[in-house]
Amino acid sequence: MHEYSLMQDIIQSILDRLAEEPTQAPVEEVTLELGVLDVHSEAAARTAFEVLARATPLQNAKLNLVVKPVMMECPQCKIVAPYQVDEHTHANELLPVVTCPVCHGLARLSGGQGVASIELVFAEEESSD
């Protein structure tokens, strides 16, 4: 259900953007960069996109889904690495700091949530020479 609501907002945002910049070329691909904490199920996100894109200019667009991890940065040992979360972890459950697995100091967590970017690829319009 979460993915459906998220995709509904994303698709509406894309449709609003297309209405502002009308083009005759169809959308071939949609690339979404989303935080891992907002995508509990990639399959559910893809299904929601497919269902919600029906009868819109996005209907035949290929969805490229890039899931961005939560990142851990330790100021003591300078490690920067993805921080493992499971599919049941929610953003409000994570503390902003964790124990670094290398030096056991306090490391900062960042990212892993929200829509990082939305990119559209349009079909090349054929010229009628």
Protein described:
With 129 residues, this protein is α+β, with helices and mostly antiparallel strands. The protein has 2 helices and 7 strands, in the order H-E-H-E-E-E-E-E-E. The protein has a single domain, classed as hypothetical protein PF0899 fold (2-Layer Sandwich). It has helices at 2-20, 42-53, and strands spanning 27-35, 62-68, 70-73, 80-83, 97-99, 106-111, 115-122. The strands form 2 sheets. Strands 4-3-6-5 form a 4-stranded antiparallel beta sheet, with no helix packed on it. It has a 3-stranded mixed beta sheet with strand order 2-1-7, covered by helices on one side. The chain starts with a helix and ends in a 7-residue tail after the last strand. The relative contact order is 0.25.
The class by helix and strand makeup works out as alpha+beta
Q: Indicate the overall shape.
A: elongated
SSE run: HEHEEEEEE
**What's the number of domains?**
1
Number of strands: 7
Query: Kindly, what is the distance between the CA atoms of the first and last residues, rounded to a whole number of angstroms?
Result: 48 Å
Strand content is 25-35%
Question: What are the segments in which pLDDT stays under 50 over at least 5 consecutive residues?
Answer: none
Topology:
Layout: H1 2-20, E1 27-35, H2 42-53, E2 62-68, E3 70-73, E4 80-83, E5 97-99, E6 106-111, E7 115-122
Parallel strand pairs: 1-2
Antiparallel strand pairs: 1-7, 3-4, 3-6, 5-6
Helix pairs in contact: 1-2
